[in-house]
Amino acid sequence: MSAFANILIGGVFHAAVLFLVAAGLQLVFGVQKIVNLACGSFYALGAYFGITFIGVMQAHGLSPWLLLPALIVAGMLLGLIGPPIERVLRSVYGRDESFQLLLTFAFVLMFQDVFRFFWGPNPRSLDSGYLIYGVLRAGDFSVPVYNLLVIAAAILTAVGVGAFLQKTNYGRLLRATAENRGMAEALGVDVRRVYSVVFTAGAVLGTVAGALVVPTAAASLDMAIEFVIEAFAVVVIGGLGSMRGALAGALIVGLIRALAVVIYPEFEVLAIYFIVIAVLLLRPAGLFGTPAT
């Protein structure tokens, strides 16, 4: 039971971080109809910047207890990159998906050079300061409280995004724009502003996820590509444009990955692809996606 609990918590922790990135991807696609390959780069940027931000704050006397909120602030500050990148993407709105994929992949390549220039080619990491929050133990089972706090933050984000989209006037504007851009513009909605806000929110979700993961994992040049693959696996499993799908897909990928690492590590990535293939064969639109008409 202890081994199972460790696998479960490890999988849910990875799913929590993965959900934040996938939620940003789903939000951008749902409103702007752009498949953003750069979401993995936002995640990596959050990780690298989070390490630098915490280093600077610690040099100025940051309390170790403020590690978690400081990382969230670091991720949110990176929202400043959202509007300029969205402005570049305006050139491919309404064009063939291949233009969108090529342009967002170009951002991936540019960010790789940015990471190498500012942080170098070697992996970077924080110390084990996150253990100040303590470790929850029960027999052979143990989990850092920090991991539970990240899981709770992801759950609160999921609830908050859902409530925002369903219960607020601006959320209704976003859904109206996603449903019919032309009608929204005719009714006086500033669609360009909506797109800028949505893309920035999607970028922030990715950068916050990257910042939150660095206490437990190193930031490296490969993490952007590796994570974008998992994020797209989540989208395929859950259904493109569905927030419920992002949550379900992240849980499936996170748990399968954690189980594979324990049972047969070489099977880790392949197991995720098997799930993706099965979903594509049995339900091409994803678990919560809407089939194309």
Q: Summed up, what is this model?
A:
This protein is mainly alpha-helical and 293 residues long. The chain has helices at 2-32, 39-59, 67-77, 82-89, 97-119, 145-167, 169-179, 181-186, 191-213, 223-238, 243-263, 268-282, and strands at 135-138, 141-144. It is built from 12 helices and 2 strands.
Tell me what you see in this structure:
The protein is mainly alpha-helical. It has a single domain, classed as Orthogonal Bundle (ABC transporter involved in vitamin B12 uptake, BtuC). The protein is 71% helix and 3% strand. It has a two-stranded antiparallel sheet with strand order 1-2. The longest helix is centred in the first third of the chain and has 31 residues. The model has no long low-confidence stretch (mean pLDDT 88).
Runs with pLDDT <50, length 5+? none
Helix content: over 70%
- CATH C-level: Mainly Alpha
Total beta strand runs:
2
**Spatial shape:** globular
Average pLDDT score: 88
User: Strand order, biggest sheet?
Assistant: 1-2
Q: What would you say the CATH architecture is? A: Orthogonal Bundle
Domains, number: 1
| Main sheet makeup | 2 strands, antiparallel
Topology diagram in text:
Layout: H1 2-32, H2 39-59, H3 67-77, H4 82-89, H5 97-119, E1 135-138, E2 141-144, H6 145-167, H7 169-179, H8 181-186, H9 191-213, H10 223-238, H11 243-263, H12 268-282
Antiparallel strand pairs: 1-2
Helix pairs in contact: 1-6, 1-9, 1-10, 1-11, 2-3, 2-5, 2-9, 2-10, 3-9, 4-9, 6-7, 10-11, 10-12, 11-12
